[in-house]
Write a structure and sequence with these properties.
The chain is mainly α. It contains 8 helices and no strands. α1 runs antiparallel to α5, α1 runs antiparallel to α8 and α7 packs antiparallel against α8. The two termini are 15 Å apart.
Length: 169
């Protein structure tokens, strides 16, 4: 049976991985125009095998680049919404410091994160078609919820074991 100290360490490692994912996801929402330009140029380069194998993806990234560049040039204030998206990811990441510090007392943050991960799926399925997002891209978006919930489920199970240790002590 795993000791309390080792269990806390494993919980913290999983939480750090999840927090890093949230922070990176947030930070990458700031330079959207630059990132999409780089992705488009990389996909269209002669060295890329993707252009020949996934022409729909290349076309979609090009369309997104065109839209972002046009918006940024004429209506840059609209991209302010993605700045808030980035900020929200960073704030949510900070919330996970609570379970990092005291997992049993702050298990509600883990539950909140799992609810948020589940919410990604209906959001993508409802808003994706309304906004003209291709189904394959909606599936990629939904994968963030599916893959995001996995570490949270693992952490929640470990927190419940830690709670049992603490109740028995």
């Amino acid at each position: 049976m795993e000791g309390r100290k080792a269990l806390r360490r494993r919980i913290r490692i999983w939480l750090v991985v999840f927090i890093i994912g949230l922070v990176l996801s947030g930070l990458t929402a700031f330079p959207l125009s630059t990132e999409i330009r780089w992705a488009d140029e990389l996909l269209r380069s002669d060295a890329s095998p993707i252009a020949g194998n996934f022409p729909g993806l290349v076309e979609w990234i090009g369309r997104v680049r065109e839209g972002l560049e046009a918006t940024d040039a004429k209506y840059p204030f609209l991209l302010y919404g993605t700045d808030w998206l980035a900020f929200a990811h960073l704030v949510i990441a900070v919330a996970f410091y609570g379970p990092f510090r005291d997992p049993v007392r702050n298990i509600w943050v883990i539950d909140f994160g799992m609810i948020a991960c589940a919410g990604i799926i209906p959001l993508a399925l409802i808003c994706g078609p309304i906004r003209g997002i291709p189904l394959h891209w909606q599936l990629i978006d939904m994968s963030f919820g599916v893959f995001g919930v996995i570490p949270l489920l693992v952490v929640r199970r470990m927190i419940k074991r830690l709670e049992a240790y603490e109740l028995a002590a």
